[in-house]
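Example record

One chain of 465 residues, shown exactly as stored in the release files.
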Amino acid sequence: MTRWHSCNILQIAPDAKRLWHFDAKGGGFVLNREYSGESLPAHTTAKSWTALWQPKLNVAWLPVEHIFLRVIELPKSNFDETLAMAELQLEKLSPLPVAQIVWTIHVLPSRDTAKTEGAPDENLQTVVIVIAERRAVEEFLGKLEGQSFLADRLEVPFLDQLAAIPATEEGAWIYPVLLSGQNAALIAWQFNGALRSLSVVILPPAGDRAADLKSQLAQLVWAGELDGWLTAQPKWHLVAQPAQAEEWGNLLTQSLNEPVEVSPPLPETELAAHTAQRAAVAGEKANLLPLEFSTRYRQQFLDRLWFHGLAAAAVLYAVCVAVYFCAVAWVGHQTSDVESQVIAISNNYTNALQLKARYDVLKEREDLKYAALDSWKLVAEQLPDGITLQRFSFADGKKVTLTGTSSSDQISAITDFSDAMRKAKLNGQPMFNQKVANDFNFRQGANNMATWNFSLQLLHSEDSP
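Predicted structure tokens for this chain:
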């Protein structure tokens, strides 16, 4: 069973429309707001995305002039079987051809009454068959659609008025109504703890109205006696508003020559609350709304959701595209500013690069010049006596090559000189790279003379440990 979030009850009166909006709370319905007037509040009756997780029930009261009510007794069973049993008797009970009507049933609750003669069998249940002309129902639904009210159910408020009859009170309960602008009354005959029949009496617009009413009531009493359920003189109860109670009370007193007990009907707001409660628990089959209408309304609701969803997606897409193009335009503007700045500083940047290159060249020349002098100084300090230096070469700004002559027996002195040069320090820092071999060469010559040479790799700042 659907757990309803809210319920709208619509009544279309000749002078105006009334709408009651109920909220589902605590297993029942609590009145939230009441509207009256020619137009209906669309935000209250229309269904949107929220109806998917907060179901809304729209119920319309079918005017009483479109309704025929019949009372029958059937064996107790579940609703589907009871509906099938009622369908078998429909042709006999319906005042119109079955193909031209819509109908449903309302099972009256069992009432705990003392077992007396004439009381209903415990295995039987009282069922009210509600019949309406299909053409009238379709015209009524067309009016509702014109007000953008798509009904989920069509209900008869008189059924809730019947439920208010006290179980211990018996007799004829008279409810004045207007049938197509004519004064009439619905009569519920309750005897031996059960509803036995529902009848209609109509007052003529002129003439001896009391006598005509007496004749109609006498025929109804006689029919009840023939059916066997009216076994005693009925007590008469008039359920009407004060304005109607005065008129009908006088007529009934003149017609019956018996006392008539007058009581007010259920207020319409309370009646709407009872209808909301009953409609919320009723099944889909207990509905006067034709199946094709409910199917079409459901499809329209789904189509509307799809349309709104696509429209929302299109709007979102348009917003995203607009944001994208705005972002592109902003980034393009920033790029143009940066490019303008680049163009403005490009000459200065080029000049700065040229100056830096010139500075690097001059700095390298200065470093090489001092590196050569420092290398020569170290050679002068470390050169042993008796060894002649013939050539000092400084190549590529990083390689120092020494070539000289000595006697053949000074090879150890030359080796020590090579090692001393490779480990030499200037201002406490190594001058040459000790990890690179010094390519030492020694060649014996004539007259006890020898030629030697070796190379050293300058230790630049980037190679420092």
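Notes: DSSP finds ten helices and 19 strands in the chain.
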